[in-house]
Amino acid sequence: MDDVVDWLLDSDPAIRWQVERDLLGAPVDIWQATRARVASEGFGAALLAHQDVDGQWGGGAYFPADFDPEGPEASAPGQPYTATTWALKDLREWGLDAAVLGDTAARLDANSRWEYDDLPYWGGEVDCCINAFTLANGAWLGADVDGIAQWLLDHQMDDGGWNCDWVDGSTVSSFHSTLNVIEGLLQHEVLTDGRHPLATALRAARQRGAEYLLERGLLRRKSDGALVGSWATQFAYPFRWKYSVLRATDHLRAVSLRDGTAPDPRAAGAVEVVRAARGADGRWVQGDRPPGRQWFEVDVPAGEPSRWLTLVGTRVLRWWDGTDAA
């Protein structure tokens, strides 16, 4: 396993600092020093260089300004991932210090509007996933996203999850939407240190959302136990908005470490899917990624060993097996 860790360490700072923290248990000053390099090297620096003077990326909130909703790109599989929300999500998840972005929150407040109904950026819109991303991004940048927090509470479904298709009449939750929301809620909780006025309600909502997934073993329909979809067991980075049991188990790991709770045995089957995907060399191979325009490559083509997937898969199994460095 040492050669896998060495391979992971020989990587972009956005990956390396997480390897140091999660797999090696390095002292805080070591991994924090590596994390600080995200602003000046590799993926982080490259994405920062694409920010517009008005605070946006690509001239748009969720879609770049040059995206034509009636054009060929709109009818092609996937979507462009070059606009503001995706850039902020990536930078936050890569570990960028929010202070590096300076007055970005204020610039977005002044200049960015959602493509849906021209709504103000930090007020959110009607899509659960978009609002969850924005809740976390706003908490990270110090923006006022209290309205989005309340909106997510108001739009939790009776079964405990969320569904972005609620606007079209859906009354049952989606695996994709639910995971995106509970990830956003966890990030908001961590970034506000659980001191938000709605903290208790948001935490309860997050736990109900996780329960929705756990009741289904993270990968099966509750009604008949059938696999919810082949996408649940397909792993590819960047994760974007898509659900997978790799993402779901990594979320449960983060919750377990924050709350000081043991792994939930209902996740056992999903964890074994993660384990089975590990190659004999200890690496996970890139799958088919969500198609769509991006600023630059941050991982390997399909079929090649992925550092991102290997980082996440390794820490999930170490957590589950009780050997987590964190």
Features:
single chain; 14 helices; 2 strands; globular; 326 residues; 1% strand; mainly alpha; two-stranded antiparallel sheet
**How many strands, which pairing sense, and closed or not: the largest β-sheet?**
2 strands, antiparallel
Helix content: 40-55%
- Global outline: globular
Taken as a percent bin, the fraction of beta residues is: under 5%
Give the H and E element order: HHHHHHHHHHHHHEEH
Structural summary, described in words:
The protein is mainly α and 326 residues long. Helix 4 packs antiparallel against helix 6 (84-94), helix 8 (128-141) runs antiparallel to helix 9 (146-154) and helix 12 (245-259) packs across helix 14 (307-321). The chain has a domain at 53-215. It has a two-stranded antiparallel sheet. The mean pLDDT is 96. It has helices spanning 2-9, 13-23, 28-36, 42-48, 72-75, 84-94, 104-111, 128-141, 146-154, 175-191, 199-214, 245-259, 268-276, 307-321; strands at 284-285, 305-306. 47% of the residues lie in helices and 1% in strands.
